[in-house]
Amino acid sequence: MPYSSWLYENSGLTFEDLAGWLKPTKSHEESNKPDLSCTLTVSTKPKKQPDVRIKRIIPSGPATVVFFMDGDKVVVKKPDDKEYDIYEAVSAAIAIHLYGSNSQFKKAIERHMDDYLKAEAAKKKEEVKKANKQAQKAKKKR
Questions:
Q1: How many domains does the chain have?
Q2: Ordered DSSP codes for 14-49
Q3: Range of 16's domain?
Q4: Could you report the per-residue pLDDT of 70-121, keeping only the tens digit for each?
Q5: Would you say residue 135 lies in a domain?
Q6: Does 138 reside within a domain?
């Protein structure tokens, strides 16, 4: 059984998932006959969790360069309106290193903040309902 058939049958992936990974081996213009053979490229290595242990920190003016034990380097620049804080810079560098980019880190925060804000709104709504019921009971007693 070809690997692609085994992968399709045993991975739980849909055909659309596999079709996104398929790359034609020849373009239609290269030959007179259409070539329907494709190459399936799948990475079998799991993504490695970045090593956040710090090897070296170099403060350099408004920027801070943080080198990690896994060989990666992250440069963090402070905003013009903020005072330089080494702890804030290193924390930002670790977050960027873990999430891959500043925007991915912000998206993770926003996603979790949305959950928190929804829960807070539900609590507030419940408190308002409770207060309205108490006010109606007090009004009926008069």
A1: 2
A2: -HHHHHHHEEESS-GGGSSSPP--EEE----SPPPP
A3: 3-40
A4: 999 999 998 888 888 899 999 999 999 999 898 999 998 888 888 888 888 8
A5: no
A6: no
